[in-house]
Amino acid sequence: MSTPKTIKIGLCGFGTVGQGVWQHLERARTDLEARLGVKLELARAAVRDLKRARDVAIPADKITGDALSIANDPSLAIVCELIGGTTLAREVTLAALKRGAIVVSANKALLCDHGAELFETARKHGGQLLFEASVAGGIPIIKALREGLVANRFTQIYGILNGTCNYILTRMVQEGAPYATILADAKRLGYAEADESLDVDGWDTAHKASVLAFLAHGVWIKTDKMIVEGIAKITQADLKHAAALGYGIKLLAVITRDFAANQLFVRVHPTLIPEERVLASVNGVFNGVSVTGDVVGTTTYIGRGAGRDATASAVISDIVDAAAILATGKAVPSIPGSSSYASSQPPSLAPLEKITGRYYVRTLVKDEPGVLAQIATVMANHKVSIASVTQPEVAEEGTASLILTTHLSNEHAIRETLADLARLPSVVEAPLLLRIGDFAE
Amino acid sequence: MSTPKTIKIGLCGFGTVGQGVWQHLERARTDLEARLGVKLELARAAVRDLKRARDVAIPADKITGDALSIANDPSLAIVCELIGGTTLAREVTLAALKRGAIVVSANKALLCDHGAELFETARKHGGQLLFEASVAGGIPIIKALREGLVANRFTQIYGILNGTCNYILTRMVQEGAPYATILADAKRLGYAEADESLDVDGWDTAHKASVLAFLAHGVWIKTDKMIVEGIAKITQADLKHAAALGYGIKLLAVITRDFAANQLFVRVHPTLIPEERVLASVNGVFNGVSVTGDVVGTTTYIGRGAGRDATASAVISDIVDAAAILATGKAVPSIPGSSSYASSQPPSLAPLEKITGRYYVRTLVKDEPGVLAQIATVMANHKVSIASVTQPEVAEEGTASLILTTHLSNEHAIRETLADLARLPSVVEAPLLLRIGDFAE
Ligand SMILES: NC(=O)c1ccc[n+]([C@@H]2O[C@H](COP(=O)([O-])OP(=O)(O)OC[C@H]3O[C@@H](n4cnc5c(N)ncnc54)[C@H](OP(=O)(O)O)[C@@H]3O)[C@@H](O)[C@H]2O)c1
Ligand SMILES: NC(=O)c1ccc[n+]([C@@H]2O[C@H](COP(=O)([O-])OP(=O)(O)OC[C@H]3O[C@@H](n4cnc5c(N)ncnc54)[C@H](OP(=O)(O)O)[C@@H]3O)[C@@H](O)[C@H]2O)c1
User: Does the keyword NADP apply (chains A, B) (predicted)?
Assistant: First the structure.
C-alpha cells in the first residue's frame, strides 16, 4: 500500500469551539484516518492573545497570532474559521476560499451577512464552504436538508435555534420567576452573554434561519427582510395563559415557501406551540428543528444547539467531509436554488398579507366601561376576528390586563390592528403580540 | 460545456416503494440533475406479475419479469433492490455488487440476515451498498450516524422503529380498546399486514436494530443474539398503570455499548418511557430514534417510518449519493468497526448481568393470604428489590392481578426471577415483563 496522503488543517480561532475541535479530533483521529484512508494533521491554530492559558495544550510553535497567515498558508487544505464576528472572519474565509481551500465555519452571522459573497468566491476559485456547525450545533441538520432530504421541496421549516432563549423560557416556566431574574442568573452561569441582545432579541436565531433558508431555497434573506422579535417582553402571565390554552411558548424561526406562487418568508418570533407537539417538549439549552418536505412529510431533529463539544462534533463532521472531498476530488452536491439549480426562478418575498396565522395579544388597558368595545371595533376594522378574551389578573389600580386570541388572520392585518390599538387612549401600554403556531405535521 | 454523463438506474421491485421512487424521482429529476451535473435515467423495472395494473404508469418495454436481468445489466450503474424477502433479494443484490454496481436497498431483513456477506461482496468487487431506507423510513438516520455524527462513539441508541406497533399502541391509549380489537382494525385499514407477526412480535424492529448496530459498531448482530419481545401481551391495565406512574409504553430497539469493556448488546422490547421524554410523544405511525454520542450528547430524530413517499425520499437520497459517487469516483466513508476500522477490536456481546434497568412485572395470582410474601421471597432470592406493588383491578373470581416495579436490577436476575415466579403454585399466569427506560439524555 502506498503511504496515505496527509491533509493539513488550520484553525483560525482557538476558543470554546476551536479547542473542542482540536481535542476531539485528536482523540478520534486514528479511527477517522482509517475510515478515510488519509492522514489528518492539525497543523496550526490562530488566536488573538498568545499569552492566554488554554484548556487544551498545543505546542507553542503551532500557535500564531496571525489568522490570515493560516488562511493564506498553501499547505493547509482545510481552514476552520472559528473566530466569530464578521470582520476578520470574513477576511480569513475569503482568503482561504480564494486559494481553493475548503473552509469550515461555525459562524452564522458571517454566513447571513456575507453568504452570497462567500459562496460566489468559493464557486469562482474552486474553494468550498461547509457550515454544519452554524445551525443547531451538534444536530446534523445541514446534512439532512442538503443530502438526506434531497428528494424534497421544503414547504415549511421551523425550529428552536437559540439555546439561551430556550433555557430562559424553560426556567421561567419551571420556576415561575420573571424574565429579568432568570436572565441575570443565566448570565451568572454562563448560559447568556454579558450583552444578551444577540440572543434574546432574536438576531442569532435570525442568522440561523437565514442559513437554513439558503440551504432549502437557495437565496440569502437578510434579517432586514424578516420579522424578528425576541423574548424579552414575555411575562409569567403569558406563559401561564398559554399553558391554560394548551400551549408552550418557544422562540421559533419559521421559514415558509409557497411553491405555486414562488414566494418565501422568514420570521423569528416567540410562538405558542401546542403542548403535544414534540418541539414543545424541547427544553433547556436543546434545539429542535421541524422540516416539512413534499415527499417525506415532517421530520424533526433535536439536540444540543451549542457548547464546545456539540459544536465540535459538527465541525469535525465537516472536516471529515472535506477530507473525503480532498481524498477523491468529489464535490459536494450544490445547494438547491443556487446558480446551478437552473430549473427554477429564485423565490420572491411573500407579502405580509400571505403570512397567515392565529394571534395572541396581551395589552394593558384602562379599567373603564367600553374599552373592550373599542378594541373589538379596531380589530373588526381590520377583519381580525376575536376567538377569546381573558382578563387574567388584577393589574395596577385603574388598569386591567387583557389577553385576546384571534381566529386566522395575517401579519399585515394584525400589524395595522396593533398600531391602531396602541393609539387608543384607553390602551395604556403597546400591546404584545405572540403568534399561535398550529403548524401542520 | 460537455454533454453530461447519463447514469442509468434499474429498479428490482415496483410495488409500494418502487413506484414511489419512480414517481418522485421523475418529478425531481431536472432539479437533481442540475445539482449533480449528470443525467439520471430510470431505465428498467422488474416485477413478478407483468399483467398487474400499476398506479405509476411506465412504458411496457421498460418492465421485465426478470429481476436478475436488471441486476446483471452492465448498463445500469445503480440497482435498487425493492423486492423484499431474503431469497431473490439476496441474489439480485449479490449479482449487482459482483459487477461493481451500487445497490440501494430498503430491505432490513436482508441486511440483518446477510449483511456480512453483502458488504464483503461489495468490498471485494468494488460495488457499494446504500441502505438509508432500511431503517426509520424518511428519517435520514443512516446518514446522521455515518456522516453527521462521525466524530462520535455511540454509547446508546434507542428508538421506535416500527410504525405498525406504534400505531397500535397509540390507538390503544387513545381509544382504551384492547390490543386484539385495534390490531384487527389496523389490518382492515392496511396499517398491519395480514400476518402481523413480523411487526408485532418485534422482528422487524430487530432487523432495523441490527442495521443500526452495524452502522454504529461495525458488527452484525443477528436476532438470535438479541432479546426480542413484542407488544401482543400489552393490556389496557399496563397502559393505564404505566400512565399513572408517569410513563408511556413504546416498543423500543435499544443498542448499548460499553467501550471500556468493549461489549455491545441489542434488544427489542416494550418499554416504559418517562412521558416528558420526546420519544414518549412520538405517536401513530411515526418513528423516532435517540442517539447518544460521546461528543455530541443525545440527538433525536423523528419522522414517518414507512409508507410509499417517506421511503421513496430515503431511496432517492441514496440514489443521489450513488450518482455523486459515480460522477466523481468518491467512495462513501467506510463504516466504523468495519474491516477498515483498524484501531479497534470488534465488540463482544455483553452478558445479561450487565444489561441493567428497572422492571415492571404484571402477574395474575391466586387471591389468598401469603402470596405477596412468596413473590417477595422469590425476588429477594435473586436480589431483585421491589420498588412498588399495586393491585390495579379486580380480576376473575379468586385471582388478583398484581403489578410490581423493581429498583435497578439486570436481565439475568429478572429472567431467573420470572422463571421462579412462573413456578409458584399461587401464580396463575406467566408474568409479563416490561422494561422501564430511564435513559440518560
Ligand atoms: N460556543 C458555541 O457554543 C458555538 C456554537 C455554534 C457556533 N459557534 C460559533 O463559533 C465561532 C467561535 O465561537 P467560540 O464560542 O469558540 O468563540 P470564542 O470562545 O470567543 O473563541 C474565539 C477565538 O477566536 C480568536 N480570535 C479572536 N479575534 C482574533 C484575532 N483578531 N486574531 C486571531 N484570533 C482571534 C480568539 O482568541 P483568544 O482565545 O486569544 O481570545 C479565540 O481563540 C463563532 O462564530 C460562534 O458563533 C459557537
Ligand atoms: N412499504 C414500506 O413502507 C416500506 C418501508 C421501508 C422499507 N420497505 C422495504 O422495501 C422493500 C419493498 O417493500 P414494498 O412495500 O414496496 O413491497 P411490495 O409492495 O410488496 O413490492 C414488492 C415488489 O417486488 C416485486 N417482486 C416480488 N417478487 C418478485 C419476483 N420474483 N421477481 C420480480 N419482482 C418481484 C413485486 O412484483 P408485483 O408488483 O408484480 O407483485 C413488487 O413490485 C421491502 O424490503 C420492505 O421491507 C418497505
Answer: yes
The closest of A337, A341, A335, A338 to A146, measured between CA atoms, is A335
* Cα angle for residues A276, A280, A285 (degrees, 5° grid): 155
What is the rounded CA–CA span in Å between residue A11 and residue A6?
Answer: 16
At which residue does the C-alpha cell 418511557 appear?
B273
Which of A1, A278, A320 has the most B C-beta neighbours within 10 Å, making it the best mutation to test the interface with B?
A: A278
- Residue closest via CA to ligand 1's atom 44 equals A84
Could you report how far apart the first and last alpha carbons of chain A are, in Å?
A: 52
Name which residue sits closest to atom 12 of ligand 2, judged by CA: B82
Q: Which one-letter DSSP state was computed for residue A441?
A: -
- The rounded radius of gyration (Å) of the Cα atoms in chain B is 24
**Chain B hits for A278, Cβ within 8 Å:** 278, 281-282, 302
pLDDT at site B339: 36
Could you give the maximum distance between any two Cα atoms of chain A, in Å?
A: 89
Please, which pLDDT band fits residue B341 given cuts at 50, 70 and 90? very low
Active site residues of A: 208
d(CA B25, CA B154): 33
What is the residue-wise DSSP string for A46-114? E-S-TTS--SS---GGGEES-HHHHHT-TT-SEEEE-S-SSSHHHHHHHHHHHTTPEEEE--HHHHHHH
Query: Percentage of residues in chain A with pLDDT exceeding 90?
Result: 87
Structural domains present in chain A: 6-138+309-328 (3.40.50.720), 141-304 (3.30.360.10), 353-436 (3.30.70.260)
In angstroms, the CA A282 to CA B276 distance is 10
What residue in B sits closest to A331 (Cα-Cα)? Answer: B328
User: What are B231-248's pLDDT values in tens digits?
Assistant: 999 999 999 999 999 999
Residues A81-101 have pLDDT tens digits of 999 999 999 999 999 999 999
Instruction: Average the pLDDT over each of A90-94, A160-164, A349-353, B337-341 and give the range with the smallest value.
Output: B337-341
Strands B356-366 and B427-436 turn out to be antiparallel
Q: Are A310 and A299 in contact (CB under 8 A)?
A: no
- Residue B342 — pLDDT band, cuts 50, 70, 90? very low
Is A305 touching ligand 1 by the criterion CB < 6 Å? no
**C-alpha A28 to ligand 2 mean position (Å):** 40
Regarding pTM above 0.90, the answer is yes
Q: Is A346 in the pocket of ligand 1 (CB under 6 A)?
A: no
Query: Cβ neighbours of residue B81 under 8 Å, at least 6 residues apart?
Result: B12, B13, B89, B92, B93, B96, B103, B104, B105, B106, B107, B110
Task: Quote the ligand 1 centre to B392 CA distance (angstroms).
Answer: 57
Q: Which ligand is nearest to the CA of A17?
A: 1
Phi-psi category of residue A408: left, alpha or beta, with phi > 0 → left and psi -120 to 50 → alpha: beta
> Which amino acid type is present at position B53?
A
